[in-house]
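Limitations
The structure tokens in this dataset are predictions for the assembled complex, not deposited experimental models. Users should treat interface geometry with appropriate caution, especially where small molecules or nucleic acid strands are included. An illustrative entry is reproduced here so readers can see what is and is not provided.
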Amino acid sequence: MLQPTSPERGNEYLNALAAALESGRMVRLRRLLSSLHPAEVAHLLESLPPSTRLLAWRLVGTEHQGVVLSYVGDEVRSDLMDNIAVEDLASLTENLDPDDLANILRELPEAAIEQILHTMDAQNRRRLETVLSYPEDTAGGLMNTDTITVRADVTLDVVHRYLRLLGTLPDTTDSLFVVDREDKYQGILRLTTLLTRKWELTVTEVMSHGVESIPASLPTVEVAQRFEKRDLISAPVVDEEGKLLGRITIDDVVDVIRDEADRSLMNMAGLAEDEDTFAPVLISLRQRSLWLGINLMTAFLAAWVIGLFEATIQKQVALAVLMPIVASMGGIAGSQTLTLIIRATALGYLNQSNTRWLLGKELALGALNGLLWAVVIGVVSAIWFKGIGLGILIGAAIIINLIFAALSGVVIPIFLRRIGADPALAGGVLLTTITDVVGFMAFLGFATLYLV
Amino acid sequence: MLQPTSPERGNEYLNALAAALESGRMVRLRRLLSSLHPAEVAHLLESLPPSTRLLAWRLVGTEHQGVVLSYVGDEVRSDLMDNIAVEDLASLTENLDPDDLANILRELPEAAIEQILHTMDAQNRRRLETVLSYPEDTAGGLMNTDTITVRADVTLDVVHRYLRLLGTLPDTTDSLFVVDREDKYQGILRLTTLLTRKWELTVTEVMSHGVESIPASLPTVEVAQRFEKRDLISAPVVDEEGKLLGRITIDDVVDVIRDEADRSLMNMAGLAEDEDTFAPVLISLRQRSLWLGINLMTAFLAAWVIGLFEATIQKQVALAVLMPIVASMGGIAGSQTLTLIIRATALGYLNQSNTRWLLGKELALGALNGLLWAVVIGVVSAIWFKGIGLGILIGAAIIINLIFAALSGVVIPIFLRRIGADPALAGGVLLTTITDVVGFMAFLGFATLYLV
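Predicted assembly:
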């Protein structure tokens, strides 16, 4: 099950699998599945519609199901796990790393977790309980407990002999961790150092203090930032007293980065970050219709604003024709600012002094863009409806709306973050509500005052 | 310059730096800067407005400027490099890895590259030229040439002695590469294997064939997918004949993943993927106003559609009040489908058979959501404007628009990708054009036929 396949070959396989699934050739299918890497099986499962997904899942050998589960996304995983009996889960998850296992267990009811913990040996149970005691989105929940530790006062010769005694090292081990008698983290001993320095030297003489320990309570997003900035492969996780609890490796950090990026993209469209593309219609309907309902309220608010000016529109229907332009330009310009600020906040660019500068810049941009497009839109409108007054007032409305759009684009995400809400999720709705209301109000209001 | 600082301390430093910059205390500032990690200096530079950015850049010791340059984003880098003389660049880039150096050189005119290549020794020049000969977005452009190679027929004992002779290994070395006499890639020898197995064994006996070589021409996005799926730390890059050219390490892949995610998010708002948040107003104006201009054309198209029904609106102004609701619901629903499909394509989920299933699902969702909200909107409209006919026809328009939105959300990104365009960039504009036009056309068209 573990030999490599190139992505091209992988994709061919996926197509072959899909074909075999459709035609129901189960023997061929089982053979195909067992020749794939677990990550590829996971990918296949994620790209199958509900009915065939379950069929394929049942054909995955039970000895591989655990590893495959550790590779699929959260939503697909809980979909698959609904079809496994708790007593089977225990055997199925036997060979997983504590962090992968913890992820899977978090989905289960308390009683089921107890049952699985009971089947484990004392050491593995203790390790798993440590990971489970921290929230999923902290360093403690992300870490693995398979650290190899050494003492600072031994020679490299001793370390070499110790490693040969162990026989194997956990995946992605790039360093050993140096701890004192009380298990407190002291520094790392890189494998590259161990291989290139003289064996008479002691660990103290060659260990590196360059990798800082990560508190178990640090949010995973900050863990990822630290890994990215320092080009780390692994880093030690410690408790409040500085005792080594485990290590975080780059492969888990990559998942955090991918999830975080997905979250912004999906949330902006009101989708769940881990939405199962192939979820059954009725499951998707709940999430999607909720989002449409929220947006409908803002649409009704905009309609109500327009309704205030019914009499004006009656007198000059050109206003009805042109008003969506004012609202739409505000929405587009505001979204640009909003996206920029959401990204700047995520990357940790903003502080008090540069936020003020940035607000100034965005307001200037709004005003300049407003002026530029006010002229274009004003001229076109004046010619289209043969009225210079109409052209001037739509231009004025555009300038006002683009300035408000810039202001909202900066203020809304900062405000949302301060109250603990996700700017990517709520920012767009709030912003377009403001640009719609301001746009319609300015345009139709000016028209009522000056035109009709 | 290289001792670690925690993010918290780092941020304090950034604030202290910002304050020192504002008050002009240059001595203090220089001291602060030299105590930071190059990644933190890069981060600081990226979060400074243009004038202070240049000031801070000049205070970075010239011996560190090269490393700092390798950490900043493309746009900020070219901004900073405009202020360095070519003859200074040569000394400044002395200690960089070939891949970082290549990234920087790609920004320079041919003559300047020649000049810098001339100052390098033969080996480094050859390495750099190899990297430069591949496009930036391929494995060859991403790779580093600092591979440590061994032969398959030697014993581990020989390898150990060779490494101690070398004295140091490049950063993020987790494996040595096994090559034959013609430099053809044979497999990897993990450092963990080297440390745990008996020294009498030969490399052949313990090397791993589990890491496939990456062709130098493979796009970086696919390289990233392969690293993610296989939890790789490093992988060998080969030419068409299978000769080892270099290696790609996970830290560079993390940058690819981050850039790729950024690209989708930024492109959806019509922003450059690497847009400098603190670029001068006039630089940002060009990009932003272009995007507004494109959107304005679609807004005018929608206005033109409304204009076709001026007479109808004149007779019943309620239509003008309600029509933005029809368009907006279509836009929101369509964006959800579009985002989902863009993500599914990026993750490689789609093939012919499941695309058809997905289209069916999205159409069903569109129809169901259409039905649901048609009832809500229809009832509210009928009550608001005291007309059952109006309620029925806005409901019908909503259903039609939401079905068209689902169709466009699936078809547009697939079509754009087939013609080689970026769905994240052009998808949203095309989609809202369709939902605007269909929404207004259906609603006002029905009204013209049946209501007035």
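Some entries come with short summary sentences. For this one: Chain A is about 70% helix and 5% strand.
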